Amino acid sequence: MKPLQASGLLFDLDGTLVDSAPDLATAVNHSLADLGHAALSETRVRQWIGDGARRLVARAIAGRRDIDAEPPETEAALARFFVHYHDCLCDRSQLYPGVRDGLDRLRALGRPMAVVTNKPAAFTGPLLEALGIAGYFGATVSGDTLGVKKPDPAPLIHAADQLGVAVGDCLYVGDSAADQGAAAAAGMPLVRVPYGYPGDDAIFADHPAAMTLTIDQLATGLTNAS
């Protein structure tokens, strides 16, 4: 692996640091049940994660990833989703393999780090705390921190500013098309994790420029460059 260069590191949350799909699926299915809809498999829900809670809920009601407009029940289902997700936020969510070791090594290198996610702030901080990784990050930018969210580049730029690192000196680590779009618009190199959620695999196949590394492999690459 060639050495990497980055003064600051920004990370997506769901599908990159944390596999939160089991708890998201639970909250989605409880919300659907409240509205009289049938439950969905966790496998299907995994394919719809990555564009924020509202989009996830709208896809669940419609029963497909690609939707032209939100179903009429989206607002009611989203309100129920927030209630249910609060109750099961970290029941089965877990860090991906190599994440904690990689974060330890990156912190030892003195690299400032931030989380940039489309998850609402009410869930971002508590999930990071529950999994014991909140202390690694000098900034957290959630889906409702600004007036826009990924794939808009503003959250990434804001996170870099919060860390005091030039945008061009940061790497963004993610797993989705929203991550790719935000990084490209911000002028940041993107490292894609080799796991995450499968909904955007075809997009990465069409645009394979991103390096694919686990978090611990990223730490190794930066260590070799030091």
UniProtKB/TrEMBL annotation:
GO terms for biological process: carbohydrate metabolic process; DNA repair; glycolate biosynthetic process. Keywords: Carbohydrate metabolism, Hydrolase, Magnesium, Metal-binding. It catalyses: 2-phosphoglycolate + H2O = glycolate + phosphate. Pfam families: Hydrolase (PF00702). Gene3D superfamilies: HAD superfamily/HAD-like, Putative phosphatase, domain 2. The keyword Repressor does not apply. The active site is at residue 12. Pathway: Organic acid metabolism; glycolate biosynthesis; glycolate from 2-phosphoglycolate: step 1/1. Mg(2+) binds at residues 12, 14, 175. One of its GO terms (molecular function) is phosphoglycolate phosphatase activity. It is an enzyme of class 3 (hydrolase). InterPro entries: HAD-like_hydrolase_sf (IPR050155), HAD-like_sf (IPR036412), HAD-SF_hydro_IA (IPR006439), HAD_sf (IPR023214), PGP-like_dom2 (IPR023198), PGPase_prok (IPR037512). Its EC number is 3.1.3.18. One of its GO terms (cellular component) is cytosol. The keyword Magnesium applies. Its cofactor is Mg(2+). Specifically catalyzes the dephosphorylation of 2-phosphoglycolate. Is involved in the dissimilation of the intracellular 2-phosphoglycolate formed during the DNA repair of 3'-phosphoglycolate ends, a major class of DNA lesions induced by oxidative stress. Belongs to the HAD-like hydrolase superfamily. CbbY/CbbZ/Gph/YieH family. This is Phosphoglycolate phosphatase.
